[in-house]
Write a structure and sequence with these properties.
Shape: globular
Number of domains: 1
Number of strands: 0
Structural class: mainly alpha
Order of helices and strands: HHHHH
Helix content: 40-55%
Number of helices: 5
Distance between the termini: 26 Å
Radius of gyration: 12 Å
Strand content: under 5%
């Protein structure tokens, strides 16, 4: 499993998580479709918005990135939510 330092976006993802009020993100947790769906809801993204990132299904994103921890997927979701809301001041 990759670590936080393997992702250039990690520092920004941490800032976005804090700005969204998430105190602790289980970075190293193994992602599952259920966890991804839960985080989509917490972040306020629909499944269709997530799919607009290029994934067909939640499992598809996990299968295509088997060494990504849950935190990497959450980081991408936070970035997408920031872009969709036009809230760039949080970055």
């Amino acid at each position: 499993m990759r670590t936080a330092t393997d992702f250039l976006g990690y520092p920004i993802w941490q800032e976005l998580a804090r700005a969204a009020g998430f105190k602790r993100v289980a970075w190293n947790a193994k992602p599952t479709p259920a966890l991804l769906r839960r985080w989509l809801g917490r972040i306020g993204l629909s499944l269709d918005e997530y799919k607009s990132l290029g994934w067909r299904t939640l499992q598809d994103s996990i299968d295509l990135n088997p060494d990504w921890p849950l935190g990497a997927f959450i980081g991408l979701m936070l970035e997408e939510a920031t872009w969709k809301r036009g809230n760039f001041a949080t970055v």
